[in-house]
Amino acid sequence: EDQVTQSPEALRLQEGESSSLNCSYTVSGLRGLFWYRQDPGKGPEFLFTLYSAGEEKEKERLKATLTKKESFLHITAPKPEDSATYLCAVPPNAGNNRKLIWGLGTSLAVNP
Amino acid sequence: NAGVMQNPRHLVRRRGQEARLRCSPMKGHSHVYWYRQLPEEGLKFMVYLQKENIIDESGMPKERFSAEFPKEGPSILRIQQVVRGDSAAYFCASSPPEGRETQYFGPGTRLLVL
After folding, report:
1. Chain A residues with beta carbon closer than 8 angstroms to that of B108
2. Is some CB atom of chain A closer than 8 A to the CB atom of B25?
3. What is the pLDDT of residue A106?
4. What is the mean pLDDT of residues A50-64?
5. Are A33 and A96 in contact (CB under 8 A)?
6. Confidence of residue B108 (pLDDT cuts 50, 70, 90)
7. What SS3 state is found at B86?
8. Looking at A12-26, B36-50, B58-72, B89-103, which range is the least confident one?
9. Gap between the Cα atoms of B15 and B44, Å rounded
10. Sequence-ordered list of residues with C-beta below 8 angstroms from that of B63, at least 6 positions apart, any chain
11. Dihedral sign, CA of B40, A68, A99, A58?
């Protein structure tokens, strides 16, 4: 069964303390990996899409990287406003590639 | 450029009533997706629609749930005879008709069944 696993479940950082979030997947033929950010009471906000191993994307303090079995979301010198739940998702191994399978997310708290 | 719009934002229903959730996609987007989110389960795909067509409803419960995306107007997710287990956040997303599959989400409708 296609699965997406995110770790850690929760992460607490001090402002300026860099770290990485992990997203691993069991899908064999990856057809894209999506990172989103979700604030409490809101819908997921799109961050990045990665399609091939070795690909990297950056946006402000965030950088997403992709290998054959996992993706990392690196957060450099985070600020309190980076506090949110970070979600990753992939299409299934076969069939409709718009039917995303989601991880449970990493809840990030950045203390000032 | 307005984003995906959903209404109502909060909906309270008693058991046995009907719930209608509406979604207006981003301008120029013709693909709509509905997801359900529960705290311990994460986001679950329900249905994928294009104008006047249901493309994939493999995530929809077989009974009581239906979805449509008419030629004119918003997409509707309809839940008949709601039960307490239907309480959840329901999110709609949309994507453009061509190119890659990035989905953009609305703010969600929080359904509470009493």
Report:
1. 42-43
2. no
3. 97
4. 95
5. no
6. very high
7. helix
8. B89-103
9. 23
10. none
11. positive
Contacts of A100 in chain B (CB under 8 A): 43, 45, 103
- The sign of the torsion formed by the CA atoms of B6, B9, B12, B15 equals positive
Decide if A59 touches B, using CB distance below 8 A.
no
How far apart are alpha carbons B11 and B98 in whole angstroms? 33
Nearest CA in chain B to A32: B101
pLDDT at B1 exceeding the cut of 60: no
Strands A62-66 and A70-75: antiparallel
Q: Is the dihedral of CA A40, A36, B96, B42 positive or negative?
A: negative
List pLDDT tens digits, range B18-74: 999 999 999 989 899 999 999 788 999 999 999 999 999 999 999 999 999 999 999
Chain B contact set for A36 (CB, 8 A) = 105
Structure tokens at A16: 């300026």
Which is it for strands B19-24 and B10-13: parallel, antiparallel or unpaired? unpaired
CA dist A20 and A70 (Å) reads 12
- Closest by CA to B56, choosing from A34, A101, A99, is A99
Q: How confident is the model at residue B96 (pLDDT cuts 50, 70, 90)?
A: confident
